[in-house]
Design a protein that fits this description.
Layout: E1 31-34, H1 44-47, H2 56-59, H3 66-83, E2 87-90, E3 110-114, E4 120-124, H4 138-144, H5 147-150, E5 154-157, H6 170-173, E6 175-177, E7 182-186, H7 193-203, E8 206-210, H8 223-226, E9 227-229, E10 233-237, H9 244-256, E11 260-264, H10 266-270, E12 277-280, E13 286-291, H11 292-297, H12 300-307, E14 311-315, H13 318-324, E15 333-334
Parallel strand pairs: 1-2, 4-5, 7-8, 10-11, 13-14
Antiparallel strand pairs: 1-15, 3-4, 6-7, 9-10, 12-13
Helix pairs in contact: 3-13
Amino acid sequence: MAEPCPGSGISQEGGMLVQGAFDGKRQTAAGVMVVPPVHFRFDDETAGSNSFQKRPDELGISAKDITDLALVEYSTMVDTLRAQGIRVDELPGSPNGAACPDAVFPNNWFSLHEGPDGAAVLILYPMAAEARRRERQPTAVIDRLPEDIKKGLSIIDCTGWEKAGEYLEGTGSLVLDRLNRIAYAAESPRTVRSAVEKWCSIAGYRPMHFKAVDKDGIAIYHTNVVMGIGTDFAVVCTEAICDPSERNEVLDSLTSSGHEVIALTRAEMYCFAGNLLELSSDDSTTKIAISASGWRALQPEKQAALSGHGEIVPVSIPVIEGIGGGSARCMLAEIFPKCSSH
């Protein structure tokens, strides 16, 4: 169970009933929260369901060097985003004193939303791996929110779903079209269909379920590796969606909601070309954060298409994405609603 959040709104295991629906006003955040990888290493517990993780010897690096290399990559990414006018707030690297190897991916245990009254909603998620549950530090999130966002903050605590094995790992499991309130979800051991349905019922979203598999026919652990959504574009690995009817349903949903679809190959997906995030700078310029490897993997015509939707901000994180099996988007937890000032 997550730490309590006294005095910070409504906290109720399993969610609460909300009048109206979350989000709907904007797709893009102007700020993110991040966690430094101070205890980063290869995690055997998560590797069982994440085929994107690589052991140090596969990358040709020493296990003892992993943390130092990851910290350099992380710091460079933070500096790059801030130089682009993106608000970046850092959470503690040792949540509640715990040494968490995957804490650098905070978007899995919390997300922020704009409620029907314009106030902020903080959602806490049920995590599959026991070790990852120790990453949750909601009080630290609340402490770093701008004062205008803190006012009227409500909390929805879904961590109790873990008892029934109903796992749903934040915006890793859910790729959200916030404007149209559609939640894309690729079923996997970390993205359980019943949990998606419950979340959508609470948040006022429409679920879009599908199955996506890797080259070995194994379910891909997180939806945000398969696809990413911006205000008017979407990248999606169509090769990974094996059922033609589900593939068509996803593509129809994206195009009918006004998105230019950039179809990815499995090779591009494996380089994390789909694990990107559209952000807004302090001068309201659209930026697209993506790993350098993901950007390089894209075919030139796809680079051109993506560049038409925002300024590309590539970040070099080969150790983090290689050892951790997650990339740029996984490292960034968006701050909603839009704060009044940077």
